[in-house]
Amino acid sequence: MSLPKLSLRRPLAILGAGFIGLAATLAVAGPASAHHSEVKGQFACDVKTGEYVGHWTIDNVGTEGVDKYRFILVDAKKSVGDITSNVTIPGVSVTEKGQDPQYPRTVGKFDTEELRYPGDTTQLSLTVQAEWKNTYTEKEPKGDVVDLAGNCKAPEPEPEPTTPKPDATVNQECDGIVEVVVSNGKDATAPAKFTIVAAGDYKKTVTVAAGKSETVKVPAENAGDLKVTAEGVEKPLFDGKPAEPADCVAPGEPTGSYQSTCDDLVFEIVNPADGEKVELTLTPSKGEPQQLVVEPGKTGTVKFPASEGLTVTPSGKGLDDTKPIAWEKPADCTKGEAGGSGDELPLTGAAAGGIAATAVALLGIGIALFVVARRRKMRFTA
């Protein structure tokens, strides 16, 4: 029995057609698989600044011999919750058609520069689409999306220490007023609060800024024991009686006298130019009171008509002897004659040498003299 011969023509034709189809497929698929872009984002919270920091990595791949490309699409976005906005990425931008060079980018992988976004950012995205120098264009854009928590915060800064630098100086002036200077040092980092307490329920609170000072004048009538304290400082800055100044010049002392004439009871005060104002009230047993006010450098006189039993009571600030002064009729008085009491002190007529000079003569024979001095009691003495 003879077997028929096998023919290889048909199987070879089928195999050949398969190779041709595979070659055509490779020819079409080759550029598509060789040309492509990959985008990857890496971002993390910078706890020092409270920002998201990172970069995008773009890997561009081309076929052999094609080493240049351009972006025809760049879409970068930032989202904060439901609000999305466009952002720019330095070094990643579209190259418009006709721009020179047309394909400025080199195939390969590159990282963008460091990028920073606010700590409340919840999403970042970057999408690109490339065209290569051989004019092949990516069929679909490529990109990446980075989701963020939106709670990147820097630690709260530690509060700077606040420290006042309080100080106080206390000086009494010649008129008895106490000058308190409270200050807060230049290196202080907080205001200083002072409390000044003095006699007579005097109390004052002062707040002084750093590097500043303030002067408080305590009236003379309150200038007894004085205390200066500062908030936060346990020990008083001053506690005691201010020292009286040693370099004060006492004002001139006024002199005063009274004289009984045949017609009047006369009071006189001579106040030197460097003295202080003198004010007295003279109240007679008969008639209206009279005021005697004498400015520095002046002489003042008050007369009361003479009568049997007349007395005049002096009063005024600083006067501690207010005994009445009685008119005494001079022994040599005759009707219609105005004479002295043996002390040669007439107020009118030819002996008008002035009451001030008479006062000196009166002192010599024991007629009363009183002295008014700074911060001293005033007294009539016999």
TrEMBL record:
Q: Pinpoint the Gram-positive cocci surface proteins LPxTG domain residues.
A: 341-377
Q: Which UniProt keywords apply?
A: Cell wall, Membrane, Peptidoglycan-anchor, Secreted, Signal, Transmembrane, Transmembrane helix
Q: Does the keyword RNA-binding apply?
A: no
Ranges in coiled-coil conformation? none
| One Pfam family in the UniProt entry | Gram_pos_anchor
Q: Which InterPro entries match?
A: LPXTG_anchor (IPR019931)
| Domain of life where this protein originates | Bacteria
- Segment forming the signal sequence: 1-29
Q: Does the keyword Electron transport apply?
A: no
The regions listed as transmembrane in this protein's record are 351-373
Q: What is this protein called?
A: LPXTG-motif cell wall-anchored protein
Q: Which organism is it from?
A: Micromonospora pisi
